Amino acid sequence: TIFTFQRPLNSFGMCDRTKNTNIRLSLPAVCVVWEIAMIILFGVFIRYNWESDAHWAESKHNLSDIENDFYYRYPSFQDVHVMIFVGFGFLMTFLKRYSFGGVGFNFLIAAFGIQWALLMQGWFGSLDYSDGKIKVGVENFINADFCVAGCLIAYGALLGKVSPVQLLVLTLFGVTLYAVEEHIIIKIIHARDAGGSMVIHTFGGYYGLAISWMLYRPNLDQSSRLQGSKYHSDVFAMIGTLFLWMFWPSFNSAIAGHGDGQHRAFINTYLSLAATVLTTFALSSLFQKHGKLDMVHIQNSTLAGGVAVGTAAEFMLTPYGSLIVGFCCGVLSTLGYVFITPFLEKHMKIQDTCGIHNLHAMPGFLGGVVGAITAAAASDTVYSHEGLVNTFDFKDEFKDMVPTVQGGHQAGALCVALIFGIGGGILVGAVLRLPIWGDPADDNCFDDEAYWEVPDDEENIIPNIQYNNHMQNKDVETIKPHRRKRCSRCF
Amino acid sequence: TIFTFQRPLNSFGMCDRTKNTNIRLSLPAVCVVWEIAMIILFGVFIRYNWESDAHWAESKHNLSDIENDFYYRYPSFQDVHVMIFVGFGFLMTFLKRYSFGGVGFNFLIAAFGIQWALLMQGWFGSLDYSDGKIKVGVENFINADFCVAGCLIAYGALLGKVSPVQLLVLTLFGVTLYAVEEHIIIKIIHARDAGGSMVIHTFGGYYGLAISWMLYRPNLDQSSRLQGSKYHSDVFAMIGTLFLWMFWPSFNSAIAGHGDGQHRAFINTYLSLAATVLTTFALSSLFQKHGKLDMVHIQNSTLAGGVAVGTAAEFMLTPYGSLIVGFCCGVLSTLGYVFITPFLEKHMKIQDTCGIHNLHAMPGFLGGVVGAITAAAASDTVYSHEGLVNTFDFKDEFKDMVPTVQGGHQAGALCVALIFGIGGGILVGAVLRLPIWGDPADDNCFDDEAYWEVPDDEENIIPNIQYNNHMQNKDVETIKPHRRKRCSRCF
Amino acid sequence: TIFTFQRPLNSFGMCDRTKNTNIRLSLPAVCVVWEIAMIILFGVFIRYNWESDAHWAESKHNLSDIENDFYYRYPSFQDVHVMIFVGFGFLMTFLKRYSFGGVGFNFLIAAFGIQWALLMQGWFGSLDYSDGKIKVGVENFINADFCVAGCLIAYGALLGKVSPVQLLVLTLFGVTLYAVEEHIIIKIIHARDAGGSMVIHTFGGYYGLAISWMLYRPNLDQSSRLQGSKYHSDVFAMIGTLFLWMFWPSFNSAIAGHGDGQHRAFINTYLSLAATVLTTFALSSLFQKHGKLDMVHIQNSTLAGGVAVGTAAEFMLTPYGSLIVGFCCGVLSTLGYVFITPFLEKHMKIQDTCGIHNLHAMPGFLGGVVGAITAAAASDTVYSHEGLVNTFDFKDEFKDMVPTVQGGHQAGALCVALIFGIGGGILVGAVLRLPIWGDPADDNCFDDEAYWEVPDDEENIIPNIQYNNHMQNKDVETIKPHRRKRCSRCF
């Protein structure tokens, strides 16, 4: 007979027997142990702050309930929350057979990271020295989401090449590094960074790239047929793109000052993002044969304007200033996808699945520079005296600060973010190279089969038809099986 | 010739001629009659309340416009609204050929239910005795969404096995039962249940399970090949999961007290959900061969923490208390999917398509227990006196209530929810067994073809190829046609 | 051998060599030039308004930060933003091979349009005559989103048949026309239109239909096999439908008056939409063979109630009045899909891909009529005196206006919207007929291949199998290739 279905494909010899992706012991153990640790530490340290404690009824005095910080920040918090879980999660579903891993592991590490971030950031920033407790309210939860964003950015570089246990380790260290870095930048250096161009994006971007460099896989291109998208996986990724794009104004304004600060941060971000879309479409078309648009650019580079305007979002950047930043970012980020990502992979041994260098690292760095310049150029005329003090927090020990010096501090902060990102990434990358974390062999990269029960789509039948047909034609080279079957001996 | 396409598959004999799914008369009739009834009843009863009436301009006196309840609750309302329509809707798209029915019928019954709920809940709770009118504002609309959630939970157990007309009947009775149950629990028993662990989830869960028990289909496994997911239908379901997960803090805080109440309810829910994710991933991996994760668990059990913290969300549960609740729920719910759901189907004749027993019924019950304990343990020290009065509404006729007694009332309320769920479900199930509702035959279950014009995907060609090939090989047993063709005589 | 794969299909002769869809020069040029123009114009004209300027700290006097307009409107703005980018974007993904174009070009023209709208609307409405600057705050950004909505509606009629460059031209003119029309309707005629039934939907709908009439393609049905949906593209479109449906209450209340105005606009819209869902399901089932539901109706007609209640949303329409409007709209819109759209295509030469006539044009017109009647019937008794003045803005030069006259003004405004839509559409349609815009040949319509790098799904192999099989059977008529291959000479 011509056709024999359900024929095992193990004759393809795709198994790498040196790697074992069975995480049946390690993943449950890590999750349960860490969650128990969280419960104990929360029990010892975390309490409601005065705005979320029932004592508010007595302690609020003449304040109206509507002046509880909850009403200033909760709508923005929810937008940020959507960015973290749906935005980042769905942006990473673009691979044809790694959508479960993209959205699922994003979910896992974000849910873990926010708990650890509440503790780490709390020890540095919200500790009540009178009773040794961390007092949390809505702003802490926004900051926890921000902190996790740094780790999710790093995940973008590693997408499809690491195990969930590695991701949990990456997140544990990443959150720790972030909290220290943030404390140095915001409290010690006294830099301003409402949208986290430096603290989140520069740090997270270089953290991920450094880890990717440490985990370089020289033979990865062998499985590159899975490293692309499908028609519908690209549409799924657009869900991520759009929720990130739409809610980025909330991201950059979420912890900005009450009143004009949040208002202005939203405006600057909105405008920068709008400009980025136009230059991204322009460059994407310009650098493709026949002028066709590339979904990779549309999904990613359109967001770069939000990153680059992060630090300066609450400053008087002016509306046209925001447009200029967005304009440049769309160009820079798309060029990055066209030229820099291939260069990094070929010559620098940095494999960057999602192109975080173009979406976060470079635009984040640019954002730090824009922030430093804008801060240095601030003046009483533009801000009003009280506005200047409010915006740059020139109070208490920093009450004698002047804008030009502030600009210098901003530049210093950018260096700190870079150092923490690269240095931390190299250290954590070394840890992740230990052969105990259940990472996939090159052949299993970008394949949900490694860590997920994947439903048997009827589509699976196709490659077999093709296979058999091709066999007949002795044309083995062109076989593109839809999904590899895994050798049963490997488990 | 070897291949003959478009060959009718009616030789498969899949038609059950005793069932007629043609709803061309019944569905339009029910929809139009009920909508006209709604218009008349709204005309007689429903009016704007003082905060949404144009008289507000004169009647608000010294209040600022920002103190209109709209600004306290509208952002939360919108999040709840997203949960009802996108959250529940997309969570039910996971079946490979029932995505239209999942998201579409969810849309239909929610849109109908909210209207009926405004009336039913209004008669019990918002009736202005001076003029006999129900006065509605934003809080009524949140409560209507809540009420519908109970029916949508019940739909989860029946997904793929009932007709839209049955669902409308289920919703009509479900909303009615809910309104009575809610009135008894909240007003008469004076229990607190901001997030609806008892009122919504325990009631809705057992209501659906009891109906499913009444509608048991002993031969259903014959069409079980449609009772699974596809790769992309699982990704669609993750949209539902994530929007439910992200906005659950808004669900539990939407009708909590202004100020600290909403603030605290959000914090408790956020933390409980975060902990649930970790234990769900842990247990999912632990109970699968090779430690692979199961999308069913990730899509559903990760949400159980939000259910279980519902009643206690606005109490001083403490952050670590929330983590403990979430921890237990992730374990309990995942174990439910692994052990209890198969047991219920085999031994209790309860077929639970979405596993609502694990996601709503059990966690809801647990939430009621947690609420009772937390209420009984409340004290002036922890809440402040005014905080205690505010949180538990110890006012007017209940001004002499003490926390321990309140705990007892909470436990009593839980029993009421259980009784209404199980009892109501049996009654409504009996009604739904009447042979007039156009429900599908066993063979048409989980198949959108029964009630929807389904586009002709080119994929449909595949099974035919397979079919013909197999015919040649005399290997009929392994045929898995992608979609059954329906016998034309049945219509 | 029986099968020969990768066989080029150019023997199908599907190439129209008179059209060139290469936009490698035109798209980048237009995007970059216009973005630079935006930067210059923003530099000259656009500044922060007093609520987003750092001077707020000094100029707010006794206001609390929470009374900054940002907190009144930002949550609604974000919902509107989601409607524009995800709602409209995903609603247009329903075509089987035009999902990239649907969501992608929607993204491009919305991002461009909002910038131009800020300028155009600013010159008419927010110009500070003391310094010649446009002062922008959150309300301007909501209005910019509204303005773009008009153009996106027009895109719906043209979906799949125009190039991105044409869409940018359509948007440039559309925004300009909208700004003039809005100024005449709101400022000169002094009509009220909070939800934009007239200004947005009537204008946008007829603008798109008139352009479609000008760009009539008599031979389009040749490629009609691509003008349908797939199973999963229909599910994607439901994302758009639901986000539009859920957030429409925010759309209609976003720029309504503070306090009761926003509160009431939300209630009216919510109720109207709920009623529409029921009659849409009823009519969809009634007009299909076997009573099956049609996804086209569920995706679109369920939204018509939100359109029709737009103008009257902030009036005292009463809850049952809203239900009646929604009831009628569901009927009208579904009938439109069943009878009017085919009629328009056959006899009026108007090809309306998304059916905007049924979703926007007709319901928008109806909304204008409802608004005129409701305004004419307003009275001091129903609104209170101050409420009437607030709702209809009977102040300054219009302080002697009475409701009946206002009703006449509303009717006049509706005519203005119609004239601008039809007239503007004809003019812009004439411009778009120039052969310089890179629009696709009939055979390339509804096909992403024309403007996008489309990933090579394995599914593509199917038609070839089919093709070869059929060739053998000499049964050429039934061939439905999944995706056309494009003739390489055409590029």
Automatic annotation (TrEMBL), chains A, B, C:
Transmembrane segment boundaries:
27-50, 71-92, 98-119, 165-186, 198-216, 236-255, 267-287, 320-340, 361-379, 411-432
One GO cellular component this record assigns the protein to is: plasma membrane
| Domain of life per record | Eukaryota
UniProtKB keywords: Ammonia transport, Cell membrane, Glycoprotein, Membrane, Transmembrane, Transmembrane helix, Transport
Q: Name one GO biological process term.
A: ammonium homeostasis
The membrane topology term of the UniProt record is: Multi-pass membrane protein
Give the matching Gene3D superfamilies: Ammonium transporter AmtB like domains
Q: Which residues form the Ammonium transporter AmtB-like domain?
A: 60-451
Q: Which InterPro entries match?
A: Ammonium/urea_transptr, NH4_transpt_AmtB-like_dom, RhesusRHD
This molecule's function is given as: Functions as an ammonia transporter. May play a role in the elimination of ammonia in the gill.
Q: Which protein family is it in? A: Belongs to the ammonium transporter (TC 2.A.49) family. Rh subfamily.
Protein name in UniProt: Rh family C glycoprotein
Gene assigned in the entry: RHCG
